[in-house]
Amino acid sequence: METKKQSVKKPATKKVTTAKKAVAKKTKPVEPEHIGLVRNDSWLEPFEGAIRGRHDHAVWKLNQLTQNGKKSLSQFASGHLYFGLHKLAKGWVFREWAPNATDIYLIGDFNNWQEDEKYRCKRIAGTGNWELKLSEKALKHGQLYKMKVKWNGGEGERIPAWCRRVVQDDNTKIFSAQVWNPEVKYEFKKKNFKPKKNPLLIYECHVGMGQDAEKVGSYKEFKDNVLPRVIKDGYNCIQVMAIQEHPYYGSFGYHVSSFFAPSSRFGTPEELKELIDTAHKNGVAVIMDIVHSHAVKNEVEGLGNLAGDPNQFFYPGDRHEHPAWDSLCFDYGKDEVLHFLLSNCKYWLEEFKFDGFRFDGVTSMLYYSHGLGEAFGGYGDYFNGHEDDNAICYLTLANKLIHEVNPDAITIAEEVSGMPGLAAKFEDGGYGFDYRMAMNIPDYWIKTIKEVRDEDINVCSIFWEVKNRRPDEKTISYCESHDQALVGDKTIIFRLIDADMYWHFAKKDVNDIAQRGIALHKMIRLVTIAAINGGYLNFMGNEFGHPEWIDFPREGNGWSYKYARRQWNLVDNKDLCYHWLGDFDREMLKVIKSVRNFQNTPVTEIWHDDGDQVLCFMRGNLVFVFNFSPTRSYTDYGFLVPTGSYKVVLNTDSKDFGGNGFADDTVTHFTNYDPLYVSDHKEWLKLYIPARSAVVLKKI
Predict the structure, then answer these.
(1) CA atoms of 204 and 241, how far apart (whole Å)
(2) Is the CA virtual torsion 381, 386, 389, 392 positive or negative?
(3) What angle do CA 14, 15, 19 make, to 5 degrees?
(4) Which of 72, 81, 568, 668 is the most core-located residue (most Cβ within 10 A)?
């Protein structure tokens, strides 16, 4: 048996050996597997080292902050539960991070704003933290207070960095922290809420300017008067601006002083919680504009010089101040700053049940130049060493934290440079945002309206622009946001109609300019939302063509509130044209929501002809047809679509929306047989499409 075994094995062994040698000669070196971001876009391959470097930096910092996984990132980001003023079962405790301080007192109503040994903080040994424990009776709800901070060479009154409530005296205009411990705590009625994202339809809004009256509106007024409009219109998310406390109302909330304090000019924390809870009960998510890109320079109200060290929270030297915003730039390389900002994210999610954030000014964070004067003409401009790796790391960790705290949370990046990977998965080397703002679209519409004659509008260019995005990153598409509505700029409706809105927007007195503006306003919105791959955003009032800009009270306008409001009376007046635009917006959203996960359906081009100015594309069972020609209407214009019957579900030219009503929308359209396309299961859909109009048909 042994001999037989040997004789059988020898040839086989020789053959296998020979084969192995042959294979070895032909084998190519195994190429390393690309990180996901590069795998999805081969043009990024030359920069894979930088992409991996940023990713590895975030992983390293994550491991450092979590002690290599011994605790979660959420546990690390709990500074708000430790710092600040807290009511205990018995008594009070106050803590603050102020490494440069030599002494800290609490001063306020309770001690006649004088230094008092009873209210003197103690430094916690071996740290930069200070602590004060007080009896039950030492503080009362509603009392005002500040820190009296001393340092080598100076002293000053300061509002605590982690303070949750700040109020301004109506007469002196001085800001103070306020003890906040109401007897009745707000209990959320809607315990569990999951945002609807199929698709995400965002109503960007500002509580203070959300009413007709020339004043600052309140959380309660917004809940009672504006939220019902949002619900009726069909939006499933509100994006609330200016929540974090800011000393100057005219900053639109972008010069934040107290990062943990909801602005008291709109009401109490309980009233904000009730607003969010009411939205949730009605199926509306609530995200906030969060400002972590910079901070107000104020020292008494803000973080500018909390304890004699102007660099405690902010970069030193040339990077200390933002050259364009007159503000201070956070030092994202400090663990204590990461602790502060990450805790801030978690605080708003847990304490107020916000459903996520739109991060403001991301471009400013990403680049040493803040994006100022940069062209961003190619991929090399994103990986040339001009990027702040600390800020990139922070944004990546913030997204990981937010989704750890709430897996259903929504994060959106306001970023104009086009940095690749911003809304890509962390595992793929991305920064982890759920969406990025499609900031190219409003710029495109402004440029088109300003520079292109109606008869020269290029539908191919429109189609390219509204769907121009990276395939692995979801976007929030929009025609205009608050940016386009601010004084010094113009909204779309005002660019289209201008002063004629004041004289020719009554139904009985509409002129050609107003009719053109009304028609294009609807078409621009429809083609933008029809091409989304993530979500859609509208700024408060723009849905009905709000006629005037936004201008907050300031010295230059006599501190007037005239333009810091929304004139709801205009859309409510059925004698004016505004309600046509508002009604169209509502029906448009209804059509989009009729296709579940509309944002994920392929955008299939059916036809475009720049000569005719006609564009047609299909999503799901909806066919979108646009005729941008200002003068030419087309009869029996043919589109090759899936065989079947189609009914009109939306027409910009309907009389219900201020159109001419030239087409009969009650007619069911049947496709016409063509033997050439039988195997493709397609036939010709023949339509009458009036000039400057759009129609949406549904396959039935």
Answers:
(1) 7
(2) negative
(3) 120
(4) 568
What the block records as the tokens of 195 is: 């945002």
- The pLDDT of 334-347, averaged and rounded, is 98
pTM over 0.85: yes
CA atoms within 13 A on the CB side of 217: 27
Residue 14 has pLDDT above 60, yes or no: no
pLDDT 10s digits, 85-122: 999 999 999 999 999 999 999 999 999 999 999 999 99
CA distance 348 to 635: 56
Q: What is the DSSP letter of 225?
A: I
Three-state secondary structure call for residue 37: helix
Q: Cα angle vertex 424, ends 421, 427, to 5°?
A: 105
Angle formed by the axes of helices 389-405 and 335-351, nearest 10°? 30
Whole-angstrom distance, CA of residue 84 vs CA of residue 97: 9
Exposed, middle or buried: residue 661 (CB in 10 Å: 0-12, 13-18, 19+)? Answer: middle
Cα separation of 93 and 132, whole Å? 6
Whether the Cβ atoms of residue 514 and residue 501 lie closer than 8 Å to each other: yes
**Token pair belonging to 486:** 């601010």
Q: How many CB atoms lie within 10 A of CB 17?
A: 10
pLDDT tens string 236-278:
999 999 999 999 999 999 999 999 999 999 999 999 999 999 9
Find where tokens 């600040």 sit.
84
Tokens found for residue 440? 């190219």
Chain centroid, CA 431 distance in Å: 15
Main-chain phi, psi angles of 275, to 5 degrees:
-60, -45
AA letter at 456: D
Catalytic residues: 360, 414
Task: At 545, list the tokens.
Answer: 């063509």
CB 162 within 8 A of CB 260: yes
Phi, psi of 205 (to 5 degrees): -150, 165
Q: For residue 607, which amino acid is it?
A: W
How many whole angstroms separate alpha carbon 612 and alpha carbon 635? 12
SS3 343: helix
Structure tokens at 527: 């083609």
Q: What percent of the chain has pLDDT above 90?
A: 94
Is residue 479 a contact partner of residue 522, using CB atoms and an 8 Å limit?
no
- 690: preceding bond cis by omega (within 30 degrees): no
Structure tokens at 141: 């709800």
- Concatenated DSSP letters for 334-375? -HHHHHHHHHHHHHHHHHS---EEEETTHHHHHBTTTTTT--
Half-sphere exposure of 192 (CA within 13 A, CB side): 1
In whole angstroms, what is the distance from residue 299 CA to residue 305 CA? Answer: 5
* H helix intervals, 264-334: 269-281
